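Exercise 3.2. Students should predict the tertiary structure of the chain below and write it as structure tokens, then compare their answer with the key that follows.

Predict this chain's 3D structure.
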Amino acid sequence: MTRQLGPGPAGGREPRRSGRRAGDSGTREAILAAARAQFADRGYDGATIRAIAAAAAVDPALVHHFYGSKEQLFVAAMRLPVVPSEVLTAAFAPGGRDPRVSLGEHVVRTVLGVWESEDVRGPFLGLLRSAVTSEQAAGMLREFVTEAILGPVAAAAARGLGGPGQAPVAGAAAGQVAVAGAGAGQARPEFRAALAASQMIGLALTRYVLALGPVAAASADDLAVAIGPTLERYLAGDVRAPDGSVPGGGSVPGGIQPPGDGSQGLGLPGQPG
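Answer key:
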């Protein structure tokens, strides 16, 4: 940091600070470096805004000021170009899709639209490849997916966002319909969310990593039409074993929080650490 002489109170000259101010890009980079180290050492769940701030020698409020939530900080630290909760908010928003298109088809088309961007696909696939080869990276990605993606999707399923052809719930808001997962004797919303995630992550690996011919060559519209009904069933259909038993009824692994009344659902950023 250099100092220049500026006008003093008596017409003389006194030192004047120049160069970068507190909270500039240097501070941002220090926060990001600390975040990468904390996420790598402690995983997504274990890393906290407070610990990251301490490692960067800044106040936690400054981290929140620059990056908002832990999810947004993770996205910036991992150089991911999109915030998952924002994409999910748009995908599940009432009135956000053509009513003639099912929820499952709409979600597949929305996610593929994000992945087809070169700016998004590169960092996303880098994270996927790391998770396949490194247990540490897999654990970090698993925790991030659980908190930032599966939680909101489970909340959406529990709130009753579904596709065309389903009967509206009495008194439900416009655009909301009955979902099997919301009633007794049906699969838990968080189990449905995990099934949906397995479908979409499998699609990403098959299309972009393995580049399996027919799937890699198919258009996004063709894939949305083909996979949409399966995703629709996972999110809103009847998920039962042949004997009528309900899968996914046990304890929830990986820390997925039941959505309750859905108040923490779509549109809310990840919880600060």
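Discussion points: Strands lie at 3-7, 13-17. The chain has two domains: 23-79, 81-255.
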